[in-house]
Design brief:
Largest sheet: 2 strands, parallel
CATH topology: Nucleotidyltransferase, domain 5
Strand content: 5-15%
Shape: globular
Protein name: POK6 protein
Strand order of the largest sheet: 1-2
CATH class: Alpha Beta
Structural class: alpha+beta
GO molecular function, one term: RNA-directed DNA polymerase activity
Order of helices and strands: HEHEH
Number of strands: 2
Radius of gyration: 12 Å
Mean pLDDT: 85
Helix content: 40-55%
CATH superfamily: Ribonuclease H-like superfamily/Ribonuclease H
Number of helices: 3
GO biological process, one term: DNA integration
InterPro entries: Integrase_cat-core, RNaseH-like_sf, RNaseH_sf
Keywords: Endonuclease, Hydrolase, Nuclease, Nucleotidyltransferase, RNA-directed DNA polymerase, Transferase
């Protein structure tokens, strides 16, 4: 629910992406999010679990 709310806000500013890449956190691997992304026509890609290089792009955006 929170993830979907934040994504809708991001879509309003940035537009609807064709692909969304996330890490493998529980909020991003839920059935609810999978359904939400399907409704929006967004392909969901996750990084390789336990692989810093597989998550590099996602983790880089999390830096402050």
């Amino acid at each position: 629910a929170d993830v979907e709310k934040h994504l809708i806000q991001a879509f309003a500013v940035l537009g609807i992406p064709k692909v969304l890449k996330t890490d493998n956190g529980p909020a991003y691997t839920s059935r609810e999010l999978r359904s939400f992304l399907q409704q929006w026509g967004i392909e969901h890609k996750t990084g390789m679990p336990y692989s810093p290089t597989g998550q590099a792009v996602v983790e880089r955006t999390h830096q402050s």
